[in-house]
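To whoever is on call:

I kicked off a structure prediction for a single chain this morning and the downstream step that reads the tokens threw a length-mismatch warning. I double-checked the sequence; it's 127 residues and nothing unusual in it as far as I can see. Pasting both halves so you can look.
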Amino acid sequence: MLKKGSKLNSILTGSCPKCQNESMYSDKNPLHLTKVLKMNENCSHCGLKYQIEPSFFYGAMYVSYGLNVAVGIAAFIVSFVFLKATIGESFIAIVITLILLFPFVLRLSRNLYINMFVSYDPKAGLK
């Protein structure tokens, strides 16, 4: 399922979408909040420039919005339907969930966005 060459591998691991040999991020841990969006300029294996054009990742904001809506709906359903919380408690659960998952959603949205435009190339990075 997460074999090299699949989009899912690149999206979930944050690896280069073209060669999938290295992480796009300078710090792999998304919980280091000051470095959550620090990316390498290029892939050292295939040379892919991650910032494809100026302000490329502004489009990832739309992906992030969709992911946050999905996470919020899921948090509401779990708290309200399954845990039988009140409406107020469910909205508190939504806010807490969104705050806790913030760095993961940020990275996941960037990973999804760049993978919409760059495909895996098995010959990339071979020297």
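Update from on-call: the warning came from a stale cache, not from the record. Cleared it. Sanity check on the structure: The chain has a mean pLDDT of 92.
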